Amino acid sequence: MKVLVPVKRVLDYNIKARANADGSAVELSGLKMSMNPFDEIAVEAALRLKEAGHAAEIIAVSCGVSACQETLRTAMALGADRSILVQTDVELEPLAVAKLLRELILREQPGLVICGKQAIDDDSNQTGQMLAALLGWAQATFASRLEFTPGAARMEVTREIDGGLETLSIALPAVITTDLRLNEPRYATLPNIMKAKKKPLETLTPQDLGVDVTPRLQWLRVAEPPPRKGGVLVSDVAQLVDKLRNEVKVI
Amino acid sequence: MTQILVIAEHDNLHLKAATRHVLSAAQAVGGPIHVLIAGFGCQPVVASASQLPGVGQVLHCEEASLAQGGAENLAQLVASLAAEYTHILAPATAFGKNWTPRLAALLDVAQISDIIRVDGPDTFTRPIYAGSLWATLRSSDPIKVVTVRPSAFEAVPETGGAAPVLQRPGVSDSKLSHRTQLTLTQSARPELEAARVVVSGGRGLGSAENYQALLEPLADKLNAALGASRAAVDSGYVPNDYQVGQTGKIVAPDLYLAIGISGAIQHLAGMKSSRVIVAINKDPDAPIFGVADYGLVGDLHTLVPALTAAL
Ligand SMILES: Cc1cc2nc3c(=O)[nH]c(=O)nc-3n(C[C@H](O)[C@H](O)[C@H](O)COP(=O)(O)OP(=O)(O)OC[C@H]3O[C@@H](n4cnc5c(N)ncnc54)[C@H](O)[C@@H]3O)c2cc1C
Fold first, then answer.
1. Ligand 1 contacts CB of residue B261 (under 6 A)
2. How far apart are CA A178 and CA A47, in angstroms?
3. Contact yes or no for A18 and B132 at CB 8 A
């Protein structure tokens, strides 16, 4: 079985995002970019399936600007066997990414697609579900545990939901999206980073795949939210209780 | 002309409060509002929904394939109804997030996730980058598929309306997925997202035992829901559904107490719209003090029991 893992290049999670000067977009120039943390979890999940003998090949895919190659090299340094970049300078919306992935999946025929549940830049939480719909496949979002039985037509996935946990039996092939508790991703070792430089990286364009990636949403404004008023330090518990009772009257 | 369909969240017995928050976002869009109850044995929910104020019609789809709220069947059902609507709204909860993108893809439209403001019938504001920025977006699609952050909109009252109920056909089971197990966290406390007071603990608690011994009595006194940082969940102090933050639950109670939580941006994303924030932390430089209305610097092991005793 092949496993396909989409990975996104995003602003590193330690860096605070700011709007650009005219408030039309997020300022990204010169800032550290990394693989979306949920995608690291997805890569790790695929690696564990391969190490358990369930997956024969792991293909990493990224859609976006040419610098996404770095993200793909990271995925290959972690253990992905090869990768595909769908290169475009168009700002891609989740629906466009899902359409690009669909075309690649029809070509590659993976048995499983593992995505991050959301990208920490736009926080949309859409691509995996959209992809599953376009393929007519089952989905299991927010996964915290995978149970794969070789040769079986279905697999079990435990999901983090609002009230607790739910386990689904899903038909394969399927799309899974990862939550934080699925695993703890490994780090790439130096020898593997060197080896990744020689692994195959194919570059295509949306045109090659026949997909129209024109955005549907117009960004009117990006701005900082109104700041919270600064608070005060209180000296002891008695003063805190007094403030809560008599100043803001919340207790 | 707008025509809005709100998809209700429920467990076949109870209408979830999130639905009433989504209704007030629907009212901000403006225009006739229908509410869809899709489920199995969900008559009590239909009865509740028809009493909601401002609802023109309740659509009731009763079908075994919809009993578990699974994404594949529900998205298919809503897609079959979508042609009659300009807006389809659902809560940005684990329930709504799961299937709405599927619907949007079936309709070939963009989805606008987790809105916190309605700026016009086609224009919405939503947080991005863990709430560091707000983006205002306009959709050019004929149908707007939107998920609504419940805490950003006041809930409409539970009663006051008398909407007619229309039965609609369900969908056949795709057989793509079914539930084999459901483990719900049992708690007599208020629901985290609906609670007036939230007591939240972080890595500073040190252990599951400390979390329980220190925070349970405090939460009892305040009739509060319990929450946690990611670090507290990852360390196994509490179950996953306690997590507050960018990738957990979004809360905006009257009072939020952050205890032994440093205040990482990913945590702040889930609680910084609370009306009053209290932080207890031994590190005076912890970023949580930057958003707290009242900060208490010191050891939580002595401060929390003292606070509980003083209430
Ligand atoms: C992709 C991604 C998503 C994430 N999503 C979330 C999310 O949704 N929610 C979330 O919370 N985090 C999230 N995080 C994690 C986040 O970045 C932080 O790591 C996490 O919030 C830290 O939790 P904490 O504050 O409990 O722990 P720490 O940062 O370790 O803070 C512990 C605090 O306790 C204090 N303390 C220790 N002992 C005592 C004592 N005896 N008395 C008083 N104070 C004490 C310390 O001074 C410290 O400030 C995410 C991270 C990533 C990468």
1. yes
2. 14
3. yes
User: Strand, helix or coil at B3?
Assistant: coil
Find out whether the beta carbon of B267 lies less than 6 Å from any atom of ligand 1.
yes
Judge: domain B4-167, CATH 3.30.1050.10: no
Q: Give CATH superfamily name and number for B192-310.
A: TPP-binding domain (3.40.50.1220)
Could you give the CA distance from residue B39 to residue B61 in angstroms, rounded to a whole number?
6
Distance, in Å, from the CA atom of A28 to the CA atom of A18, rounded to the nearest integer, reads: 8
Tell me if B4-167 shares its fold with B192-310: yes
State which of B205, B261, B285 you would mutate to test the pocket of ligand 1, scoring each by most atoms of that ligand within 8 A of its C-beta: B261
DSSP secondary structure code for residue A121 in this structure: T
B233 lines ligand 1 (CB under 6 A): no
> Which of the residues B128, B133, B241 would you substitute to probe the A interface, choosing the one with the greatest number of A C-beta atoms within 10 Å?
B133
Interface ipTM: 0.97
Residue B83: alpha-carbon gap to chain centroid = 27
Residue A216 token pair: 């549907």
pLDDT digits (tens, 9 = 90+) for B19-63: 999 999 999 999 999 999 999 999 999 999 999 999 999 999 999
pLDDT tens figures, B105-130: 999 999 999 999 999 999 999 999 99
Pair of tokens at residue B48: 């509740």
DSSP single-letter state for residue A96: H
The domain limits of chain B are 4-167, 192-310
